[in-house]
Amino acid sequence: MHYSKILFMNILVVRTDKLGDFITALPTFAVLKKHDPKNRVIALVAPLNMELASMCEFIDDVIVDEGETILELSKKIASFNIDASITLFSNTRVAVAQFLARIPKRIAPATKLAQIFYTDRIKQRRSEVKMAEFEYNLELSKSLFSNIDLTFKKPLLTFNENDVYDRFISENNIAKPIVAFHVGFGGSSDANWSYDEYEELINIALKNEKIQVIMTFGPDEEDLYNRSREIFKNKNVVLFRSLNGIVNFCSLISHFKLFVSTSTGTYHLAGLVGTPTMTFFGNSLFASVKRWKTISDELIQHPYMIPTQKNEREELFHRVKEELVELL
User: Fold this and answer.
1) What domain range is 124 assigned to?
2) How many domains, the chain?
């Protein structure tokens, strides 16, 4: 049964994992809201993603899974009178909570034991990586509205006023386009250049006097920040620690000329705001750009899969250095 003729619906979309995974869910929220703006689109997210979810114009309400008991979570969900839910990545916790909340239509991929708690179990075989993660997420919305348009605007998140960026360039006396390097290594990424290799890339960028080079660091990367401060103390590199939340960071990087990093949450943030990316992926199907390409226009994405073999890795790094010069 499809719900195309119901006048108004409360739709719950569930994605309670990490930052990059949540960003791959945002196009699904957007197309559901675009399909019928009268519908109320509600997000169930991890605490890390509450701030970002709350500022998206296509998300009407946010429920945060704060680790309470399943019964308490189910009561939270039930208070929103949900008509249908789409769980983009399931686990037993969110599956049982929705079951107890008595949501009439509960859609999820047909994986794991948790699938028994859903009314609509969709076979996707994501392990085959026939499409990107965000595209698999979008496909699930067809189970609710068969005629839904899966296209979405790019960039998906924009900032009409950008006090964060204006303050940043003023405080650091920057008057040139910014190229950022994020050398941190986390999330689901399983490959990256070494710090020494990043240092080499940064020194190449510093030769271009028409740009300003900065390095960005997450709130838990203090050691990396201190190491970089020592290494680049006599060079024109601005160091920025993101200590004021994800939205603040999004606002800042939305004006950058290029964002260089491994395939982690910050890369997906750059894609969300339409910043050109130069990104490094593991050389496996699970970690590949085919699976984890971001939600920006593909023309501004520059992906590289890092081989495990030493000679192949060296060859790729040489090419990356050449292409970095071109992108600058």
Assistant:
1) 10-143
2) 2
